Amino acid sequence: MLKSALLGIFFACWSLGAAAEAVGRIDLLLGEVSITDSKAGSRTPRLGDGVQEGDTITTGKEGEIHVTFEDSGVLALRPEAQVQIVSFQAKGKASDGSVVALLRGTLRAITGLLGRRKAESVLVRTPTATIGIRGTDHEAAVILPGSDLGEPGTYDKVNAGGTRLFSRQGSVDVSPGQAGFAPADAPPVVLPAVPAFFAPREADRRLEGINDRLQRAPETRAGSGKQAGGKGGAQIQGNTRINASASNVNAVAAGSDNKATNRVGTIGGD
User: Fold this and answer.
1) Whole-prediction pTM
2) Residues 6+ apart with CB under 8 A from 268
């Protein structure tokens, strides 16, 4: 009986530890979507599940998935695409950053706090290029050889902010309303027109306005790791409010509608 109790405690602690490792949460799922972790374990995701560093997300013909990260940034993966979350950290430290690898297909990314505070540390890597951001809402696409969508390579369309598309052959800056292209064997260029495959999806409607809200939100409310009221330190991520005036208040509330409470104060979602 004691052994069973100890095992129960062990697995409960293990589950809590695993949950704490999530760097984002799934808030939209459509069609066929699968996730393979860093140890090659495959799972079928559910709405609200966490995603972790090392996860590779794959969508089927009609599959789509939206993930909101700890810094309130959003990644939307479209049908027949594959992306790996290489690394993500948003803890107010010098080592903070985000790297995702788009292996095929199309994604839309709206950068959160990291895109405002450490834009140079937010990257999208592809087989032919790397995309750097400047507080950005953008869409990246990787077309593989043999596809009828267009010339193979990396494409990036900017909706707001800006990106830099760079490869071994050179680099180019992409502005709102433009699309850049990086082939495997030539310098990146800005295209004369945005390719048709960047047509918006129905699910994109839920993303409208997110970038504007993130750009307007004060950094102290979005999680800079600095003090926010009182003598204690409060780390805030997402749209949160503070109702704590005592000293030594250490609490973290990630994302909107979340609440962290201790005996001297509360941090709650708007």
Assistant:
1) 0.74
2) 240, 241, 243, 253, 258, 259
